[in-house]
Amino acid sequence: MSSLDSNAFTNISAQISGAKKIEKVSFDQEINELINNFLQSLKTNSQPTSRSSYTISLETLNVLKKFIGFMKFSTTEEFMNNLKKLDLLMEGNIKPKGIIGSAVLKKEFCCGNMVRRVIFMLREEINNHHISLHKQEGSEDSSSNKVGSMFDLLARLPKEQQQVSSNNKSKKFDIRATAINIIRELTDEVKNIDEQIFQIGIDLIHDNEILLIPTPDSKTILNFLINVKKDKNWKKRNFTCIITESYPNNLQKAQRFALKLSDLGIDTIIIPDSMVFAVMNKIGKVIIGCKQIFSNGSAIVSSTGVQTVVQCAKEFRVPIIVIAGLYKLSSLSPFDIKENYLEVGGSKLTGNLLPKQHSVTEDEGDYSRLVMVNNINDFIAAEFIDIIITNTGAYSPSFMYRVVADNYEYS
């Protein structure tokens, strides 16, 4: 066996032993019940029409706050290791003892995003605390080297000031309280994302422009358009929204989406998915709301047919804009897209599309040999996207790796 083969064998053995250690991960009974209840709620609401990244992100932060409250630890390192274990669990990579199947978490990207964001911000707070301690120690050392009049001046300090300085030395870094404050900040950020996105993306919509919306299930897009219309400076400007019906999963959502826009005085048109090519030459911009943005600028959307829309838009050179909150940005890379990220449902999800009785004989239909392929979400490659708007700014897809590095802890 060559040295190269022996090194590869050693690396594989280390990975196997590491996997065995991960399998032995376990939490306390209170934490197990907390996580199991969260996973059960995701499973019961696992229909494609009931998912919302916004609500799942807030629920994840709430679970994380309770997790930190229940956690027992003796050192800061142990605290961070427990958070890393929770991060692996939220990604669906491990299944600790006493936890029900966590496969559903592989499709809910916001769960892992929130945990990694908290870990990143907490690590920054710990580093800042260490830096402040080193600066304080350095200032004390420099002051102790001074003699003469300066020494006499310090010796004459009042006793109250000496007690305050000694108390500052004895202060310890409360990592539990710091983590809870970070979670509160993230909760406020998620709740205020719509207003921040509106302030950044308002200049992208022009007067008498026609917008194509292929994701009518996106609350971010809906709130953005509503805020644009309600803005005082936009009362004299009009724009038209063309909405694809996203048949069959989001048909009702497309109708409600169009109704809300028309109630505000926005000209709205619903078209079949097959009609996109016919109207693309009149479109000014394609605005897309997504479920996940990867580090290379590609995205996952929870509406089918978006891939066809972006390819048609590129053919007609129509700008494609993706709008999403920062909590949908992940440090993951899109490898094995069909296996890991795209979901396909069968006839059970669209059973109402099949006739229950034959139109002539009135007999119940036999669908035992009928298979319906129903795509639940779709993938958009980075080369189809022109700009990505988040609550922190507008970025090119090629720059998203830097945004990830500035806001997230890599797994």
Radius of gyration, in angstroms, nearest whole number: 27 Å
Approximately how much helix is present in the residues?
A: 40-55%
Largest sheet: 7 strands, mixed
Poorly predicted ranges: 1-23, 146-157, 159-170
Instruction: State the end-to-end CA separation.
Output: 34 Å
Assign an overall shape: globular
> How large is the share of residues in beta strands?
5-15%
Number of domains: 2
Reading side by side through the largest sheet, how are the strands ordered?
Answer: 3-2-1-4-7-11-12
Features:
411 residues, alpha/beta, Rossmann fold, 2 domains, 7-stranded mixed beta sheet, 3-stranded antiparallel beta sheet, 12 strands, 11% strand, disordered N terminus
Topology:
Blueprint (H helix, E strand, L loop, with lengths): L2 H21 L5 H16 L8 H18 L5 H15 L18 H37 L3 H7 L3 H12 L4 H17 L1 H9 L7 E5 L5 H12 L8 E6 L6 H13 L3 E5 L4 H4 L5 E5 L2 E2 L5 E3 L4 H10 L4 E4 L13 H4 L3 E2 L28 E2 L2 E3 L6 E4 L2 E3 L4 H8 L4
Parallel strand pairs: 1-2, 1-4, 2-3, 4-7, 7-11
Antiparallel strand pairs: 5-6, 6-10, 8-9, 11-12
